[in-house]
Amino acid sequence: MTSKYSNPIIPGFSPDPSVCFHDGTFFLVNSSFHMFPGVPIYASKDLNSWTQIGNAIHRTSQLDLTKATSEKFPIGPQKILIATGGRFAATIRQHNGTFYIICTNDWGGGPNLTMRNFYVTTKDIWSGEWSDPIWFDFSGIDPSLFFDDDGKVYIQGSFRPSNLMELKCDIRQFEVEIQTGTALSETKKIWDGFAGKDDAEGPHIYKKDGWYYLLTAEAATFEHHMVAMARSLDIWGPYESYESNPVLTAYGKGDVIQNTGHGDLFQDGDGKWWIAALGIRNMDGCYPMGRETFLAPWNGRLEAGHRLSSRMETKRYDYLYIRTPNLEDYSFSSNNRVIKLVPRKTTLSSATGTTAFLGKRQRLQDCTATVTLKTSAKESTTFAGLTIWKEPIRHEEIYYDYSTSSVCFSKTNKMLSDEPVTKSHQLKLTDTIHFQIKATPKVFDLSYKVGSDDKWTKLGSMDAIEFSGYDFTGTIFGIFASSKSEEAGAEVTFEEFKIT
């Protein structure tokens, strides 16, 4: 099938991968948390070149993300977790001509989860159209589907109390009527996990040679993360832990790829087994893009790659909005070269709701995001520009403040201070201002130039390590517009939003 691939296969904010193989094509999904559209879907023929073909949550009516906030709280001595709500840990499966994506939606934020679980379906995965959610009752996260040979269907998940601080979790299962989401059995515990004292999450069941194999993600999702396996001759157990567990971990190793875990096994057309798993690329403590998707032959080794395939250009599938957007606030030219936003009072630091923002995931460690802002002579309370954004707690931007005729820099890191760091340069009126964010593995530099000037003026920077840590998401380049007073019909025009 393939022997060459570049890791990570899906770079930049692509945690919790799940893969299925159907009709000669691999399909892969990731968690998307607070971003809309949600649960991105990628396709590949060779496991190396991946193209985003849609999103499972692509209509604002499917579910509500307005309360998918981010909160910080301690998880141990000198450890602070930034927990973000939204869509957790999707699983993709295909059965009898129907594709299923099953997922958790959390809108509580912080240590207290308020969660519901659902799945969506489609007969034609290439259409980009998915059903409304089918909701089902399960007190936990990370649901998975298993279709048995006898026609029965089971849902497995990580049972957990409503408080994330109670880390002891286990894997539980029930039989489901797949058409309605109705439980056909009690929900029963089937495994405590390999460690028996840490999180048992991300379960997937596979069947081979009469055995049921249960794969789990354990020990949280950071430096101790691991993948473990157990097996049983009965789907209800008891499950016997594999004597060589964990089957995948980077803990205690000095590799660039760290925090590996939350994997999914799948076979290719030749019957060869593979695992897709999350991990980070730790560059001296810097990993702002967060958890990414890596690939290895089953029982193989996750190794760092060098590049993303250039064939990952998409339609508008890869554009991102913050939580549930007001889509009427956005307009696009036919070729997407001109994008207009209606500013709202909400800002990039707003904990809930949405703001006028349109972004794309950072896919490369070395890259440059640029955009041109068309200014106007009228007085306004609007400010608009270019940002590198991870969640309301950490972001930095360079923007034009219409009320002061100034170009401004702002850096927000609420892990360090509740007040942003700011700087501004007053400008003479000009028709166009060009903004640039230049990323390296260690720093993000923000610059501007006006009109036809050739020279960029650096206004501020943020170390990549400030975007790194115990969190769920990854960095996103985006254009945005906010206003101190929502002026009727006031649009902001951007041109040539690019990441190169």
Automatic annotation (TrEMBL):
<dbReference type="InterPro" id="IPR051795">
    <property type="entry name" value="Glycosyl_Hydrlase_43"/>
</dbReference>
<dbReference type="InterPro" id="IPR041542">
    <property type="entry name" value="GH43_C2"/>
</dbReference>
<dbReference type="InterPro" id="IPR006710">
    <property type="entry name" value="Glyco_hydro_43"/>
</dbReference>
<feature type="site" description="Important for catalytic activity, responsible for pKa modulation of the active site Glu and correct orientation of both the proton donor and substrate">
    <location>
        <position position="142"/>
    </location>
</feature>
<dbReference type="InterPro" id="IPR013320">
    <property type="entry name" value="ConA-like_dom_sf"/>
</dbReference>
<protein>
    <submittedName>
        <fullName>Glycoside hydrolase family 43 protein</fullName>
    </submittedName>
</protein>
<comment type="similarity">
    <text>Belongs to the glycosyl hydrolase 43 family.</text>
</comment>
<feature type="active site" description="Proton donor">
    <location>
        <position position="201"/>
    </location>
</feature>
<keyword id="KW-0378">Hydrolase</keyword>
<dbReference type="GO" id="GO:0005975">
    <property type="term" value="P:carbohydrate metabolic process"/>
</dbReference>
<dbReference type="Pfam" id="PF17851">
    <property type="entry name" value="GH43_C2"/>
</dbReference>
<feature type="active site" description="Proton acceptor">
    <location>
        <position position="16"/>
    </location>
</feature>
<dbReference type="InterPro" id="IPR023296">
    <property type="entry name" value="Glyco_hydro_beta-prop_sf"/>
</dbReference>
<dbReference type="Pfam" id="PF04616">
    <property type="entry name" value="Glyco_hydro_43"/>
</dbReference>
<dbReference type="GO" id="GO:0004553">
    <property type="term" value="F:hydrolase activity, hydrolyzing O-glycosyl compounds"/>
</dbReference>
<keyword id="KW-0326">Glycosidase</keyword>
<feature type="domain" description="Beta-xylosidase C-terminal Concanavalin A-like">
    <location>
        <begin position="318"/>
        <end position="499"/>
    </location>
</feature>
